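Record format v2
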Amino acid sequence: KQEVTQIPAALSVPEGENLVLNCSFTDSAIYNLQWFRQDPGKGLTSLLLIQSSQREQTSGRLNASLDKSSGRSTLYIAASQPGDSATYLCAPRGAGNMLTFGGGTRLMVKP
Amino acid sequence: GAGVSQSPSNKVTEKGKDVELRCDPISGHTALYWYRQSLGQGLEFLIYFQGNSAPDKSGLPSDRFSAERTGGSVSTLTIQRTQQEDSAVYLCASSLGVGLMNTEAFFGQGTRLTVV
């Protein structure tokens, strides 16, 4: 059974900092991995999809890397802004097309 | 529609009543997922539909929970004899299906269920 761990659980930084969110998973037999953000009281918004054959994927100030063999992914956020404050979730997609979620990293960017 | 649509957005029900939650996936998406998120908790998988295949029901917490998907599109999650511990946000997601594994899943805004 896939288990996903996200570190840190919470993070508070001043505006402008570059930061790294970590995701680890126990079963490396995945098809892809998605990063999502969730604002309070809202659904999940897809940020990036990184294929199992890829090492990196970029969208604007976001960069996701994937080391499938070691079961790790990182989300890098450049020049953080208060609007980036949210909970960030990673979800590898594995056997049976199943998405398994980590507990998330709750990010607060202070102006 | 443009995205995954869930209704109602909020539902308050009395303990012991049955509730139905609806999900309209993105047109053409054959894979559909239901998740539950209790207050301050992570996402808990409930059930997964893929095309005409038998659904993966391995996440349903009890036999009070059931789901169906009619015509390969709209899905309904039914909770019978609701209990207070059923209070949570129920999230639906859809994606292009099996054979196209490297595809994104898109989530609806969720239904917040409160059992009083």
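The two ends of chain A are 41 Å apart (CA to CA).
The mean pLDDT of chain A is 94.
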